[in-house]
Inverse folding.
């Protein structure tokens, strides 16, 4: 029988908040096909700005892995994530074009500003690798769980949104998230009580910011 890791323990403990982040009304409306396209466009434009800020954060996690990790495999996993961001940014530009959104005119909303500020705090060299990788995993895992839900059997996701859902909902991205989770669990297993506390608080902070991020699209309803 496989012992469950710390991340799984935390997700069970904070189930309501995790469900709030991964089963948000915006996601449920994509899945059942009732999505308001203006809401989707708001999310797309704001997420483009978020992903731009996510690039230096990812690079900072890569640096921490290189400096602090006891296992070289971590660098390869994180490098894969960093490398895929170039394609992701190109995808956002194409997708925005498709929907008639001018990305250079997008103004970040407060929830986005707040979330990007958290990413910036996480980039500080004072933030331990264990805390940073826990945040990195959680950020990716929320999108994986959310969008995978939209392409499950029985979902009524509109055809023009399927590609978006596949970006984060596909199996390869799911495996990447599992690799990140394994790294986080390995580090958390060896962490001090103080580090554990900081990582758990960080997980909750990420989940709260994700809920607020989805909530931005409500401005259009
Ligand atoms: C807000 N969270 C948000 N945007 C994303 N693109 C991801 C997570 C996944 O990278």
């Amino acid at each position: 029988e496989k012992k469950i890791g710390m991340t799984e323990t935390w997700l069970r403990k904070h189930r309501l908040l995790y469900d709030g982040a991964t089963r948000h009304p915006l996601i449920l409306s994509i899945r059942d096909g009732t999505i308001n396209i203006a809401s989707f466009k708001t999310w797309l434009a704001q997420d483009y700005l978020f992903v731009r800020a996510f690039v230096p954060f990812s690079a900072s996690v890569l640096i921490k892995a290189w400096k602090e990790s006891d296992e070289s495999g971590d660098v390869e996993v994180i490098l894969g994530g960093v490398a895929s961001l170039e394609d992701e940014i190109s995808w956002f530009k194409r997708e925005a074009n498709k929907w008639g959104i001018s990305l250079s005119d997008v103004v970040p909303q407060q929830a986005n500003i707040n979330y990007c500020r958290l990413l910036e705090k996480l980039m500080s060299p004072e933030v331990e690798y264990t805390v940073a990788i826990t945040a990195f995993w959680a950020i990716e895992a929320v999108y994986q769980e959310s969008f995978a839900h939209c392409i499950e059997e029985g979902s009524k996701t509109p055809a023009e949104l399927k590609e978006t859902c596949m970006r984060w909902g596909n199996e390869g991205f799911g495996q990447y998230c599992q690799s990140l989770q394994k790294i986080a669990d390995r580090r958390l297993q060896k962490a001090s009580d103080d580090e554990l506390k900081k990582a758990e608080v960080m997980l909750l902070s990420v989940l709260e910011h994700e809920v607020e991020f989805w909530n931005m699209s409500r401005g259009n309803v």
